[in-house]
Amino acid sequence: MRFIGITGGVGAGKSELLKYIGRHYKCEIYLADEVAHQVKRAGTPCFEALRELFGEKIVGADGEIDRRIMAERMFEDPQTVEKVNAIIHPAVREYLSEKLLKARENPQTELFFVEAALLVEAGYGGMVDEMWYIHADSGLRADRLRRARGYSGDRIRRIMDSQLTEAEFRAACNFVIDNGGSLEDSCRQIDEKLEAFTWQE
Known about the structure:
By secondary structure, the chain is an alpha/beta fold. It folds into two domains: about 120 residues, P-loop containing nucleotide triphosphate hydrolases (Rossmann fold), CATH 3.40.50.300; about 80 residues, P-loop containing nucleotide triphosphate hydrolases (Rossmann fold, 3-Layer(aba) Sandwich), CATH 3.40.50. It contains nine helices and five strands. A five-stranded parallel β-sheet has the order 2-3-1-4-5, with helices on both faces. The longest helix has 27 residues. The radius of gyration is 18 Å and the shape is globular.
């Protein structure tokens, strides 16, 4: 079984390509953002640590962490980002390590994917067998973010400025998928890379 990390700048199209992989290969796929949501559910150590960091206002009416409020606080203060990452990243790593161990015991799982924009910064390079970089130029990514998420130009610039540069992504990764063209072309690149693994219709 191969453990593959998928990374790339915001708006690069990582999720869309993983949907394709999930449909056609014997794999397990974990999105770090979704795992991070799971590990901070009410009653978890992360939940308690975040409530201590932000105060009771961070807890929404449903009793869970209010992601919108937390995102706003993190957006305003880079030091808060570091504190939140120090709480959540270790829990995400532990969660994924447990899933990885179970996947290795399952003969039906040929590929294990973890996707996150911050995989390199979070130190996953030493854990994975391969690190893939999903590339699209900044103009195209910004256009996608405006259309799909309604982000302002200022918000897009701030997010992009906080992420690794093109050169840093490429230096940290073993394989690059150019996702600046058609979806069909990107999928062709994936199929060529994974030709040794089982294809499923």
